[in-house]
Amino acid sequence: MAYAVLSTSLQVLREVAGRVTKDQLDNPTPCAEWTVTQVLFHAAGDQLGWASMVADSPLPTWDPFAPPATLDGEVADLIEPALRAATAAWDSVEPGAESVRTPLPPFPTMAPELAAGACALDAAVHAWDIAVATGRPSPLTAALAEQLLPAAHATVEPLRGFAYASAEADLPDDDAAARLLRYLGRDPFWNA
């Protein structure tokens, strides 16, 4: 894949989702209204949404913003098809393309590099949501967060109140991961 930050973020989502056990599916998450199951459906749906815009692949069969609360089957059966669709879609972007379509209402098209960063942001942050909700260490490294910050700064403000909460104030000792999470309205130290 030509977009390293996206490749890394999709792999982070794959690894975190792969560690979720059946007894963790109903755990609360930093997304206050949603359980781990719902964040998994949302994350998978978002990746399918990106794939549908970038490469005309099928949309998810559920509403990513009203995700199902019950998972019938395995986590991998939900996540893997979405990650494969996203990877195939981004691999289909022609080198030198000036823009790609996006599922972000305020941004019908974007430069491919920025759009890939926005797609990566979605995958990485939801991987963080799932990891902390299941008692795992944060998969969001400072280095990955540094790569995601430009896409966050370019896309988040028009989506506040819908996809993102109000930003939290940075603290003096925050690293890039904490700054990114606070910018997205998340508490870097959230726990159930």
Automatic annotation (TrEMBL):
Record-linked Pfam families: MDMPI_N
Query: Residue ranges of the Mycothiol-dependent maleylpyruvate isomerase metal-binding domain?
Result: 11-131
Q: Which InterPro entries match?
A: CHP03086, DinB/YfiT-like, Maleyloyr_isom, MDMPI_metal-binding
Q: Under what name is this protein listed?
A: TIGR03086 family protein
